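Structural biology now treats backbone shape like a language. To illustrate, our science desk offers a sequence and the tokens encoding its fold:
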Amino acid sequence: MPPRDRADQPWRSEGAPPPPPPKKKVSWRGLIWTALLVYLITNLVLTFVGDDAPTKISYTEFSKQVTAGNVSKIYAKGDQIQGDLKKAAGVPDKDKDTYDKFATQRPSFADDQLWDELTKQKVTVTAEPVYKEPSLLTNLLVSLLPILLLVALWVFMARRMSARLGGGAGIDEVEGELNDVVDFLKNPDSYRKMGARMPGGVLLAGPPGTGKTLLARAVAGEAGVPFFSASASASEFIEMIVGVGASRVRELFAEARKVAPAIIFIDEIDTIGRARGGGAGMGGHDEREQILTEMDGFSGSEGVVVIAATNRADVLDPALTRPGRFDRTVTVSPPDRKGREAILDIHTRGIPLADDVDLAQVARTTPGMTGADLVNLANEAALLAVKRKQTEVTASDLSTALEKVQLGAERPLVMPAEERRRTAYHESGHALLGMLKAGADPVRKITIVPRGRALGVTLSTPDADEYAYTEEYLRGRIIGALGGMAAEQVVFGVITTGAENDLEQVTNIARGMVGRWGMSARVGRLSALPSDAQQAYGLSAAPSTLDAIDGEMGRVVDECYESACRQLRENRHKLDALAEALLANETLEEVDAYRAAGITRLAKPHP
């Protein structure tokens, strides 16, 4: 991100002339090297082009060749003579060089009978020059050719670098949504003639790290227009002094209009754009109202497009998203498998990879990870390779880095034998229930090595990206999450605090099933728990409905817990075998885990 032009300016600009234009420092060393390179290339080109130029010889050598009858034809203009030899002759004083075209100068004091000798030897005297000098235009083009080649190469490299910077790999699905904006900024006259009005604002909504800022910058780069960026959460943008923040918004839009067509990008728009009455802090409303006022002033012909980004689109004030303002919302989701592979390929170009690294396999095992997560994964693997004193990043480095990113860093914690055994059964309960359920996410790894806040971790990830879930799948998720608590109950007859994180997951899934996704006959096919923004106006549902939701959540979780305990009792021998293998090895990879439990991995049925 480029620096701000002034300390009190809450935005940054790219591609726009700064006021006043700073004097660019000239790199004389770079100019000298460039000039030298152009000179060398020019001489090289001229050398190849000038291969047919005649060899300059002495008049004595010319007379010798005439007497020997080796001259085929000549052309004379004054005392200057050009000609061709019948067969190549050696250049005097240069044993290895020969010539067949020559040029010489007849001395003014020469009194030889040149014409008689030429007639005697039957030399053809022509009226046209044997060798024509290149025209001024030809010489100019030959001289400029290296410079033109260098300029073309520079433009090509600049475009490649720009495409690499702006191209957000993995978000190809949003390209079509923004192509209209790019085309409008490139060809505004076509839209004006048709009477079409481009959206005044585009809202990029998606989780953190999905590349919303890069996408906005890529739109500006593709359209070739100035790019003004500001963060709505910046302290310089939100001022407690009434009116100051709003004046800066006016200044930002004024600067963009001066260099239109242009793009204004406002990051974290939810900071000042929350629904009124929804707990927005001081200083937010003035800036929001000013932004709305400026956008309402657009006629659609200024060529200024406002792009905003947020990861909380649900809390935005409807006044921001109505037609005429941010009337186009583009959802930027985490990349799919192909997108993840492309991102990994880009961000590992500067990292030496070993032959055993398969980026496609890494992409398959990282569903749900954003571009920022993948960049962090590649960096963690490189850091680990340095610590291990390696010259390349191996598949083991990437696997260990993925564990650190997904599961947390290892903790040097020594657990008592009984607690270690209970942890092994806890994690085995999670894993076994996932293995027994057809269609559940495959178990990738089980470990009782403490990581982060957890004493052990069971990692399960799907084979492919999924976007919609059935009630059966969600119940399987709840059963698997309750597997640790159920295993402790079945084996030890106790319940510990180790299931805290599991219960948080269970609560969130059950609440969504009952209150949002219509998976309860008692509550009905409705969304009784809407977004936070609507809750700001009061209760989201009637008290009786909320009571029904609580009751249904309890019923779903109780049924899943009973199922978990029953399955573990029925498969106690498999649970014991898995826990013993875990105690012996501390960590089990996918193949070893299924083998220890004596279970063949069940393929997920495809619709």
Notes: The chain has a mean pLDDT of 77. The two ends are 46 Å apart (CA to CA). Residues 53 and 131 are 7 Å apart (CA to CA).
